């Protein structure tokens, strides 16, 4: 496995990240301790060093498992976890982005992980309650205390992230170096603002649900053909199933699995994208790891892009129109080499 610089930092992380929401069975599904350990070891033996967790994952069990798995070589691994989501239902200060919950949640994660520091702390989701200043100052305090090395943000609007990093730079505080978003061939809306924003701020992107909840594995196509399709109606739309068919056909032509092709597609974007891969069974992890062993040819990439394309909407489509471009550039758009073009 190769390594990438994590956004605007010198941190080296493997080109695939291990998602651990499946570590533990408290939610009625997932992997038990031994299976989780086998999945972790398969990932680590393949060269993976980037482990992603959260305080809520399986009621804290995921962090406990990780703590045991990395104990023998803690400094080799880049351990990421998140705060924001509740640890105690019904208590307003046991959830949210504010300083009190931030400090409490980080201390609890450190105990479960059995470590003295967290390599990367994610703001799990924006709560639209806590001021940006409070969040960024609190995160900077954690970095200065040595409890956190880097910070990132997940599941938040692009304007929030932009405001936060601009403020942090202005005040000399620690800025976000990573962005975690939902992104796949059936969920490309992040391309409207989140991905361009990440590229502009040099943020590494770690997409989740790269297999579209299983749609891109092709497993629902047989059910569709047999008239027994069941599941999330929006996820199993005709459009998404049509995209799944293109992925299955492309994978067959390339000699890889649909899952590997879908993961690889997210890796071959025009910026740093490090997909999260998770599993409940060892063979699933082994299959996903195969995404690093090939490159999607340009023709197939174009076909996948076209099959899954979305309308970017206003103002993107408006600003990209020929007439507006000529108005803005005074008729010189085609004559100007623009190295900043996204």
Notes on the structure:
- With 342 residues, the protein is of the alpha/beta class.
- The chain has 2 domains: 3-307, TIM Barrel (Alpha-Beta Barrel); 311-342, no CATH class.
- Helices cover 40% and strands 13% of the residues.
- It has helices at residues 33-45, 61-70, 99-113, 132-145, 158-171, 194-200, 219-225, 238-254, 258-267, 282-289, 298-307, 316-320, 322-329; strands at 3-5, 12-14, 17-19, 50-52, 78-83, 118-123, 148-154, 176-182, 204-208, 276-277.
- The strands form 2 sheets. It has an 8-stranded parallel beta sheet with strand order 9-8-7-6-5-4-3-10. Strands 1-2 form a two-stranded antiparallel ribbon.
- The longest helix is centred in the last third of the chain and has 17 residues, at 238-254.
- The protein is globular and about 55 Å long.
- The relative contact order is 0.12.
- The mean pLDDT is 96.
